[in-house]
Amino acid sequence: MRVADRVGSALSALNHSLSKVPCVGLTVCLLFALMITALRAEENSTSTPVEFAESSVLAQQKLLIDVTTAGPSGRLVAVGDRGHILYSDDDGDVWVQAKVPTRQLLTAVHFVSAKQGWAVGHDALILATTDGGQTWLQQYKNPAAEAPLLDVWFSSEFEGFAVGAYGQIVRTSNGGKSWEDWSAHIENEEEFHFNSITGLKNKREMVIVGEAGIVYFSFNQGMTWQRLDSPYEGSLFGVIANGEPQSFVAFGLRGHVFRYDGSLKQWSTVKTHTEQSLFGGQYIADGRLAMAGNGGVWLVSNDYGKQFSLHKQSDRKLVSGITETADGQYILVGQGGIVKTIPQGNDLAIRP
After folding, report:
1. Backbone phi and psi for residue 98, each to the nearest 5 degrees, phi listed first
2. What are 288-305's pLDDT values in tens digits?
3. Half-sphere exposure of 87 (CA within 13 A, CB side)
4. Which of 18, 198, 247, 281 has the fewest CB atoms within 10 Å of its CB?
């Protein structure tokens, strides 16, 4: 099925979300549709051969959703449409396509060490790697859910969670050898989408954000969850730890960014100088955070998320993921594939 066809069918299934949160512009609607709506359900039969992502020299120019660093190795790993996963060992100058047993859209990637990582996507799919992202194995899949997983986070090589559309949340305590439905441990009668999950500095405290401004907090590694008062009624697409104890930054529609101080149990609104929706972000180190979104916008903070500097890509293509390289530059992924840029916003050439 062509991308245009998949987007069309995805948009027809957005009633649950759009009845609560208005989309702001066609581009946002399209990405929102791609990220939170299952494009198709496949037969879950052991007799069906595994379809691997097609090898393509153009993979790094196609739609990619998320990018991260694989632990202290400095390896960069990006995931996206058609099961494409790419990795780079030279700060993003050259990228290699990984061997991946799916052609589904992948929405998020997370590494707990230089070798061990997970990626999630449509059909409630969870993939795992033990070699730093070069090869991947399927750990979990639930086509019957007819909805994607949207984020994944591990506190150790054993303990992890994945969250997604319509309140999906699954947990593993054995590195993904088995996953269990964890929805009974979190109150979400409306089945709001869980868009993002992260752990805070001590890794015992965790946060989930999602549709309609929902925010859930756990003090005990996700065993129980409580709902926090939200500073915003619109969708929150991402949450990142900011390097301070009991503190995090949430972001979403129309450029809204909020900083939570757990010691004071208090929210503060952070100025972003943009009304573009923000979809992806990452805590880097030493109080530095980065996030990115619609219209080629990306933001960087050097003070634990108290204030951000604004950057814009000249092509204005949507950016859904961002990370910093070891040499102090930035890797952006989104509609334009992979872009390497310096802090001033000038793009650099990259090679397949």
Report:
1. -85, 165
2. 999 999 999 999 999 999
3. 23
4. 18
